[in-house]
Amino acid sequence: MDQQLLSKTAAAMVAKGKGILAADESSGTCEKRFQSVGVACTEETRRTYRNLLFSTPGVEQYLSGVILFDETARQKAADGAPIPQYLAKKGVIPGIKGDRGLANIPFTREEKVTEGLDGLQKRMKEYFELGCRFAKWRAVITIGEGIPTHTCIYANAHALARYAAICQEASIVPMIEPEVLLDGNHSAERSEEVHEETLRATYAAMAAYNVSIEHLILKTSMVVSGKDNARQAGVDEVAERTVRVLRRTVPAAQPGIVFLSGGQSDESATAHLNAMAAMKGLAWPLTFSYSRALQNAALKTWRGQAGNVASAQKAFHHRAHMNGLASQGKWRAELEKQAA
Ligand code: 13P
Predict the structure, then answer these.
(1) Which of the following is catalytic: 177, 192, 197, 240?
(2) Which of 202, 208, 272, 304 is 20 to 30 Å apart from 55, CA to CA?
(3) Is the whole model's pTM more than 0.70, yes or no?
């Protein structure tokens, strides 16, 4: 475990004005996204699309890192270099999806636990050799009648903690992602309770597995209302609830916190981040690690056509720029300046 490297990587991941692109959609998820814009999902189209994102001129100004899917970490960039090396040369840290997806937990209402711990020590060594310096593990917590159960929170917290320890041992910064889904008709209050319970259990498990808090990045969902709830919490309420939970549960020693977008609109994801980052006296830098909220516009513009690449890159650059501003709490002021 190279502590110096871990510290350097973690600090760079949350460098001022930058955030992380999640481009680690599994081939199944990629298929759904591509289908929505009429593009066949093959190894080659996935490579073409991801290279479109990675080669966007100037986007490295706003990106500290990119999370890759296993397949992408072994593919080549447009210039023939392996993609992890291509990114590193641009000053963007290559990361990897470390988990292997979800399985049902027996004796629950199809609650999920994340798989992928078997053989992980060997895989992490290989990912390090491929150039990856951080690695994500996504756990999914669903809110509904009688759920999440303690069983679900406990199973996921332990998997996240074991995962984090294995990454650190391999000198790879763990990005642990317990995502509380926004699907459902629950209130923002209920979402806050579930976030708190989930994060408390996760940090307790990490203490039990001797995970080093100084060498860890949390990727969390925001405390929003369930998407089918009639009362949708406003931007300030989301920001207050989310930061309150984080203050209660995340040690100040941690180098940073990043957010997933989770199906929020592009603009909501930016507005929420901006409101939180603008708060005074936070213990950690906050920034984005979005997939959909960074890629939606680019994917819709691209539609698999070579002639649309430049405009798709422009759309991607714009979202990255807006979120870079939001991570410093400067997005709203910039909008007002532009409107004036
Ligand atoms: P979204 O921003 O689309 O939620 O994706 C983030 C992510 O990495 C999910 O694991």
Answers:
(1) 177
(2) 272
(3) yes
